[in-house]
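> example.struct
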């Protein structure tokens, strides 16, 4: 199992991306969190707010999910990170069933 960590400009975009991945059955579920972000962009430090999507997926779906996110994300260079994870048996079985 893998988790996909995606930063988004706002909650609306985070929900749009989550729903898109769910409808394509590339993820089993997504959680959205507001976060304070600080980073370099175009030679300046940005100090602002974003929303993070943490989506649960299979290792085989990760590349497809990344491609789909890139198609609809508003950022020129979106942050899309893969975090390898282990889940309890019941959750893992449920997640596999929900992804095709």
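> example.seq
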């Amino acid at each position: 199992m893998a988790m996909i960590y995606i930063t988004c400009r706002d909650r609306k975009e985070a929900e749009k991306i989550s729903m898109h991945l769910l409808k394509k059955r590339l993820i089993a579920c997504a959680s959205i969190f507001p976060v304070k972000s600080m980073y370099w962009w175009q030679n300046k430090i940005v100090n602002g707010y974003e929303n993070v999507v943490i989506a649960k997926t299979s290792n085989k779906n990760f590349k497809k999910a990344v491609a789909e996110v890139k198609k609809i994300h508003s950022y020129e260079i979106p942050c899309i990170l893969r975090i390898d994870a282990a889940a309890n048996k019941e959750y893992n079985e449920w997640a596999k069933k929900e992804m095709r």
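> remarks
The beta strands are 2-8, 29-41, 44-57, 80-84.
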